[in-house]
């Protein structure tokens, strides 16, 4: 019974921590966070809890309806008693050593400590802090601030005291304008990774990026500065954006032009070869003068003895001109994930645009090479088409204009039943799309009450953005996921 109560207490505490958060700034909390921390995270718990179908008020935490039966009556009652902590202003910060802590303002110390005692935890005085231990986790209250650290009580007190001293002596988040402004933006989750405080990690990542490689200057500026990630919840949508800052807090230009990548917009020609099974499509545009030689030279320096072998690919890479695309999807619904032939269970297609005459040239070379290596597994249909059989798998390779295509199905153009629109690609240098319609075979067999659309691309604001949206449904993003998972009895 005691073990069950301890587990329940841990669950309740984790629920509190998960929803405790930051959407606007509290100068009191900012003053306790060292600005030079390796990682700083802020979470808008009220927004997350609301999107999940729950709420927090003076009456405590109210779980989403679907979770109440799963959590049990005792947990629901425990969370309803949670009071005294301002869950709109919580930070997590950590050092490269791995030590870190959560901090939030206390609005009613007596009520908060009553809740801690309700969990069956003993509150003691230690170096001016009111401390409660739960296994190797420690809760602390002092100066109207609540602290949580995943370490023993004395170590937690020492770490917090050291952090507060660093914030006072070296500067707190409240005194660092651009970082404070970043966290002051209205996001569900904000994360700042300070590579300047992680020299080992920065040097390891920097070693893989030669000065000659496109984008090297942007990468090196970020590795002496910060990587920023923000996520937002808006109804049925979750959006995650990535951006980079230099050491002075200036947002870096990560556009293809600034990175020296010389990309071009995607052509939608490849869409005519897709069918309704292709739920994933990834494409990028490559110009004729893409700096392949400079990139390979830089990579070869890193590859050591294998560098010369890598350079053998240069003539083929330099022949690329146009769009490179990949598309795939399950051909047999849920059964596609079971054992069986990959090419029978999955539709897949790879498409590459080449310079004039290169597609036919490479097809002729490929035909000769494959016939020499596996004469019984290659069927030459004509000069532009071959079929390759390997054990229980069959692949189709064909030339269409200046494009070379490989697929797990016969290559036929003119399809109009695909899931993607040309306009979703032609305005992008590179983009990845996923579309699972609610009435698709896979969603139907999984009893999913919604479809899913996802997009990864640059957003025009020097950020890379990942959008995930529930489609063909109503409600809210997290709440729908909770309801679906609970309905499966997981």
Structure description:
The protein is an alpha+beta fold and 490 residues long. The protein is 32% helix and 29% strand. It contains 18 helices and 22 strands. It has helices at residues 2-19, 27-30, 45-51, 65-71, 73-80, 109-118, 153-170, 177-184, 199-207, 216-223, 256-259, 292-303, 307-311, 314-318, 342-345, 358-373, 441-445, 477-487, and strands spanning 39-43, 55-57, 60-62, 91-94, 100-105, 123-126, 129-134, 137-142, 145-149, 189-194, 226-234, 237-245, 280-286, 320-330, 346-354, 378-382, 385-390, 393-400, 403-407, 430-436, 451-458, 464-471. It has a 20-stranded antiparallel β-sheet, sandwiched between helices. The chain has a two-stranded antiparallel ribbon with strand order 2-3. The protein is globular and about 85 Å long. The two termini are 24 Å apart. Mean pLDDT is 87; it is low at 1-25.
């Amino acid at each position: 019974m005691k073990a069950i109560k301890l587990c329940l207490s841990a669950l309740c505490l984790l629920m509190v921590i998960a929803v405790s958060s930051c959407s606007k700034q509290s100068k009191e909390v900012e003053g306790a966070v060292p600005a030079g921390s390796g990682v700083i995270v802020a979470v808008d718990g009220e927004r997350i809890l609301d999107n999940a179908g729950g709420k927090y008020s003076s009456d405590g935490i109210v779980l989403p309806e679907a979770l109440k039966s799963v959590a049990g009556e005792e947990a629901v009652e425990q969370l309803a008693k949670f009071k005294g902590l301002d869950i709109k202003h919580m930070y997590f910060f950590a050092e490269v050593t791995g030590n870190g802590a959560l901090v939030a303002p206390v609005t009613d110390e007596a009520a908060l400590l009553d809740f801690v005692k309700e969990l069956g935890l003993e509150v003691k005085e230690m170096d001016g802090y009111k401390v409660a231990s739960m296994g190797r986790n420690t809760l602390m209250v002092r100066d109207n601030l609540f602290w949580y650290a995943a370490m023993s009580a004395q170590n937690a007190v020492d770490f917090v005291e050291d952090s507060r001293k660093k914030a006072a002596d070296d500067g707190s988040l409240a005194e660092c304008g651009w970082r404070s402004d970043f966290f002051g933006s209205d996001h569900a989750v904000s994360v700042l990774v300070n590579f300047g405080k992680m020299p080992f990690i920065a040097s390891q990542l920097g070693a893989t990026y030669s000065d000659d490689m496109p984008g090297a200057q942007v990468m090196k500026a970020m590795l002496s500065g910060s990587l920023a990630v923000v996520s937002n919840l808006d109804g049925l949508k979750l959006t995650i954006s990535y951006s980079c800052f230099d050491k002075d807090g200036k947002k870096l230009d990560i556009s293809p032009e600034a990175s020296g990548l010389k990309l071009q917009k995607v052509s939608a020609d490849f869409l005519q070869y897709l069918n309704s099974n292709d739920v994933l499509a990834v494409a990028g545009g490559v110009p004729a003068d893409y700096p392949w030689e400079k990139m390979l030279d830089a990579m070869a320096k890193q590859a050591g003895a294998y560098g010369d072998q890598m350079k053998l690919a240069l003539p083929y890479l330099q022949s690329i001109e146009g769009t490179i695309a990949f598309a795939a999807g399950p051909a047999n619904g849920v059964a596609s994930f079971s054992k069986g032939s990959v090419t029978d269970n999955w539709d897949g297609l790879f498409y590459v645009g080449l310079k004039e005459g290169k597609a036919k040239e490479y097809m002729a070379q490929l035909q000769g090479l494959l016939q020499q290596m596996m004469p019984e597994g290659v069927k030459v249909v004509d000069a532009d088409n071959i079929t390759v059989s390997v054990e229980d798998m069959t692949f189709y390779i064909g030339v269409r204009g200046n494009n070379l295509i490989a697929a797990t199905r016969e290559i036929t153009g003119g399809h109009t039943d695909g899931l993607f629109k040309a306009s979703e690609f032609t305005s992008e240098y590179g983009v990845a799309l996923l579309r699972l319609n609610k009435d698709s075979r896979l969603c139907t067999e999984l009893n999913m009450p919604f479809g899913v659309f996802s997009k990864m691309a640059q957003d025009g604001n020097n950020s890379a953005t990942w959008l995930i949206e529930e489609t063909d449904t109503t409600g809210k993003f997290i709440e729908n996921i909770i309801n679906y998972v609970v309905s499966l009895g997981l």
